């Protein structure tokens, strides 16, 4: 249990210093030993490829303090595998799944006192990152890398947690290209989203909403979260080559199927929002964030989905099922959860 006197229930989604991070260096073609570290900073060569050519990958997952007092981590193997896919995409060495998972467990254990208490609404966000540290001036991959995992206690990503929020379609900026890096979790995609995100916030919206970059016709993503819609007892989510394969979305597709819904992964024309009974943004940070409405200002359209401003019944069921599994209160039939010793 925690000896910290924090206002857990009012934590923001932000950085807080914890006791330890965990590191592993890649040198001479091999990964080294796992090192625990209490420094928040890194000593970096000014010509490191992460600084110039964006050789940077990151991940995001969470650990939960549960009702039975245990700590549970959700689907860390899937995050390890997605990071390996990102590595293949930007020519970085892949970290083996076992090493990734071992490091996640060690850093969570070492920072146990930062795990927010059960029912505080907060959780421990785990942020792995891999950076090219070797010096290069020509555009080439580095020959040295550093993998770090830090953790930080976080509150809800969107105001109000599981409450419906308004989104705005941003047509003048693209987050990623159809054959670009949108399917990878690289820092460059997030740099490309900053202006769109600022614009959405300046206009009073929770988040920006992206259409496919090529035709501006189909739904891509909702900021740093995937999109799903519900109609006719069907869970519908975009098939696109420019969105991040969300682990939360993958889990929700499975849970929707378990609940007897049909699941469709296909292109979703923006106009189809008119027929959606419910819609949401999903991700590790966002969990499920129901969508109240999506405004397409340039087209002078407002798609109102949650007419009473409240989450719909199927979103609520999915949310409760997912949370139940994450907190060990529902059977983990798909083997998604790691219970810490
Ligand atoms: N899409 C983007 C662009 C993201 O940054 C994230 C967050 O990781 C997601 C979707 C959701 O993915 P996940 O459910 O794996 O957290
Ligand atoms: C996540 O959901 O883990 C994200 O990466 C979202 C954002 C904080 C980048």
Low-confidence runs of at least 5 consecutive residues: none
Q: What compounds are bound to the protein?
A: pyridoxal-5'-phosphate, 2-OXO-4-methylpentanoic acid
Radius of gyration: 20 Å
Mean pLDDT metric: 96
> Span between N and C termini?
14 Å
Order of helices and strands: EEEHEEEHHEEEHHEEEEHEEEEHE
Q: What share of residues is helical? A: 10-25%
Strand content: 25-35%
Secondary structure class reads alpha+beta
Shape: globular
Helix count, per DSSP?
A: 7
Q: Biggest β-sheet, characterized?
A: 9 strands, antiparallel
User: How many strands in all?
Assistant: 18
Question: What this model shows, in words?
Answer:
The chain is α+β, with helices and mostly antiparallel strands and 341 residues long. It contains seven helices and 18 strands. Strands 1, 2, 3, 4, 5, 6, 7, 8 and 18 form a nine-stranded antiparallel beta sheet that branches. Strands 9, 10, 11, 12, 13, 14, 15, 16 and 17 form a nine-stranded mixed beta sheet that branches. Helix 2 crosses helix 3. The chain starts with 20 loop residues before the first strand and ends with a strand. The relative contact order is 0.15. The mean pLDDT is 96. The chain binds pyridoxal-5'-phosphate and 2-OXO-4-methylpentanoic acid. 2-OXO-4-methylpentanoic acid (COI) binds next to loops.
Task: Give the tags.
341 residues, alpha+beta, 9-stranded mixed sheet, 18 strands, 21% helix, 28% strand, globular, binds pyridoxal-5'-phosphate, binds 2-OXO-4-methylpentanoic acid
């Amino acid at each position: 249990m925690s000896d910290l006197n924090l206002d857990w229930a009012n934590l923001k989604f932000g950085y807080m210093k914890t006791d330890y991070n965990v590191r592993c260096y890649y040198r001479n073609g091999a990964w080294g030993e796992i090192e625990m570290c209490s420094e928040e900073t890194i000593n970096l060569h000014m010509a490191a490829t992460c600084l110039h050519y964006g050789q940077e990958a990151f991940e995001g997952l969470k650990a939960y303090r549960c009702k039975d007092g245990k700590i549970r981590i959700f689907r860390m193997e899937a995050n390890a595998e997605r990071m390996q896919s990102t590595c293949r995409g930007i020519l970085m060495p892949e970290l083996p799944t076992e090493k990734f998972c071992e490091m996640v467990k060690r850093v969570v254990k070492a920072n146990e006192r930062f795990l927010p208490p059960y029912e505080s609404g907060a959780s421990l966000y785990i942020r792995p990152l891999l950076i090219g540290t070797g010096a290069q001036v020509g555009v080439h991959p580095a020959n040295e890398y550093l993998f770090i995992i830090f953790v930080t206690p976080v509150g809800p990503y969107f105001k109000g947690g599981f409450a419906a929020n308004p989104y705005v379609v941003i047509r003048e900026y693209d987050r990623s290209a159809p054959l670009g890096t949108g399917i990878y979790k690289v820092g460059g995609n997030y740099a490309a989203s900053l202006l769109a995100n600022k614009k959405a916030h300046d206009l009073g919206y929770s988040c920006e909403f992206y259409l496919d970059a090529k035709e501006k016709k189909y739904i891509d993503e909702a900021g740093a979260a995937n999109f799903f819609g519900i109609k006719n007892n069907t869970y519908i989510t975009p098939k696109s080559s420019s969105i991040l394969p969300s682990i939360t979305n993958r889990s929700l597709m499975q849970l929707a199927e378990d609940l007897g819904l049909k699941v469709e992964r296909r292109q979703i024309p923006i106009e189809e929002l008119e027929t959606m009974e419910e819609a949401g943004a999903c991700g590790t940070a966002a969990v499920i964030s129901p969508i109240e409405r999506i405004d397409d200002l340039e087209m002078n359209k407002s798609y109102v989905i949650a007419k009473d401003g409240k989450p719909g019944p199927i979103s609520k069921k999915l949310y409760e099922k997912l949370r139940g599994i994450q907190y060990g209160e529902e059977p983990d039939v798909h083997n998604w959860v790691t219970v810490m010793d």
